[in-house]
Design a protein that fits this description.
8 helices, disordered N terminus, single chain, 206 residues, 0% strand, globular, mainly alpha
Length: 206
């Protein structure tokens, strides 16, 4: 039993050391993007729950919010593993965000989705497109052998599944009589932050 306890203690020390080493390999920009992605995943779940209350028969708004919760949990776990204090993010109520751009985006998306079921599904599709683009950019900032890189990849796979679900529903949902223009403001908001960091890093390496 004593030998087993020693083994467990040694394993814990090794894992802690690995987490610290991994934390040192992340740039300040990558850390900022991790915080941003935690809030972006939260935004997806919060928007979907708000729209689900308006359109209770649309299944993606019932099922996907739980998946978004697991995304947040996974990223919070990665933040905890590297000793990053995110208590200011984890204590936020639904619909509230630290990042002003995401706060404004949340309000705009809920307003857009309230117009019709087709608009709500379009919002869902665009959120997933944003998420995939931002996760791709975030991965470019971190080592490929890191746990965070793997986590981002898993989240991208899930977002692609969500995107297929929204596209399937859009295919059978009648569009409003007056076509609603698809807004890509959310894509620009996310990529302006994540893509800008990636470009700065690329210039620094050249």
């Amino acid at each position: 039993m004593k030998a087993f306890k020693i083994l467990i203690s040694a394993l814990a020390i090794y894992m802690t050391g690995t987490a610290v080493a991994q934390a040192q390999s992340y740039s300040p920009e990558a850390i900022d993007i991790l915080r941003y992605m935690i809030e972006e995943e939260k935004l997806a779940g919060d928007v979907y729950r708000s729209l689900g209350a308006l359109y209770p028969t649309i299944m993606p708004f019932k099922n996907i919010p739980r998946s978004e919760d697991t995304h947040v949990t996974a990223l919070v776990g990665q933040a905890n593993a590297i000793g990053l204090n995110i208590s200011d993010l984890t204590s936020l109520p639904a619909g509230q965000f630290q990042n002003p751009a995401l706060q404004s985006l949340y309000q705009n998306l809920v307003a857009q989705g309230s117009a019709s079921s087709f608009a709500a599904l379009t919002v869902g599709k665009n959120i997933e497109l944003l998420d995939i683009a931002d996760l791709t950019a975030a991965r470019a900032l971190i080592p490929m052998d890191s746990n965070l890189y793997t986590t981002y990849g898993s989240l991208m796979n899930a977002s692609n599944n969500h995107l297929r679900a929204f596209n399937s529903w859009l295919a059978v949902t009648p569009a409003p009589p007056v076509p609603e223009p698809e807004s890509y403001a959310m894509l620009l908001a996310g990529l302006a932050i994540v893509g800008g960091v990636a470009r700065r890093n690329q210039r620094a390496m050249n």
